[in-house]
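Give me structure tokens for this 340-residue protein.
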Amino acid sequence: MNCELKSLSFLFSIFTLFLFSACIDEEEHADTPRGNFEALWKIFDEHYCFFDYKREQLGVDWDEIHARYARQFDDNMTEQQQFEVMTRMIGELRDGHVNISTAFDYGRNWSWYEDYPINFSENIQRNYLGTDYRIAASLYYRRLDDNIGYVYYGSFADGIGEGNLDEVMLYLAPCNGLILDIRNNTGGLLNNAEKLAARFTNEELLVGYMQHKTGKGHNDFSPMEEQRLKPSDGMRWQKRVVVLTNRQVFSAANEFVKYMKCCQNVTVVGDHTGGGAGMPFSSELPNGWTVRFSACPMYDREGRSTEHGIAPDISVNWNADDDFQGRDTLIEYARKLLSK
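Here you go.
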């Protein structure tokens, strides 16, 4: 199949395969602190997809990291000590898809959102949803009192059906505009992101590109393959839309923002997203610990990496006075924008 005809559903199939069933055949290393370290470093060295980008953005030198961390491993280390040093090492990549999973802890670096304002409050959100909001699968929605539609989707890991989306579109059709709130959505399934975004375009769109790792070298990648978004066969929204984002918008949710930026009548409001533009792959260390990492890089339609997130069209941050009065600064800004 030629790349012009590939749909995002194909990407979802790849994503599912990678995330749930993939593992890598690695040469055997001893189940010792040194062996586990060498296995971890080599898995990343041969399969991680963002080394050039991380070097450019963060100054990451993977060979230098090997030399620096190798000195910290000896055969007298406990499992906890190995875990702590390994987590620090892979944490230098500052990639939310990079993790070590053990029976006692989950190694991660979540600085992509922990170092930034939250720009969201579930307690204040209840002031807008009330108690009589509607629920369609994983979508919470209602008409606000100024005739603006409001939809909250908290995780693309939670499924939505085409029938659910038809009902939401039909119910909100009389509204003057729509607020689509995906704050704190840390991702999930690309298929759900595609399914929702397809309700906001009337034509097929080029929304980005992706590559696959083809060898063990840091620069061994396939040619750029197009990501295309096709319009839904169901009801589609024809009025203005504001998408609300914060730093916890990550992975499939980051991709969703990328898709929506290609659609007409859409304005992204809030904070820079958290990123996560590499499809995750998994492998195993000699001691049985699972490691996860980014293996297939994705780009926007200009060919730029979105690994470190996507800037909003209009930057809006939480206001302390609004918080004190029970108002959501971002929702209020979106309402004013849609009422003009």
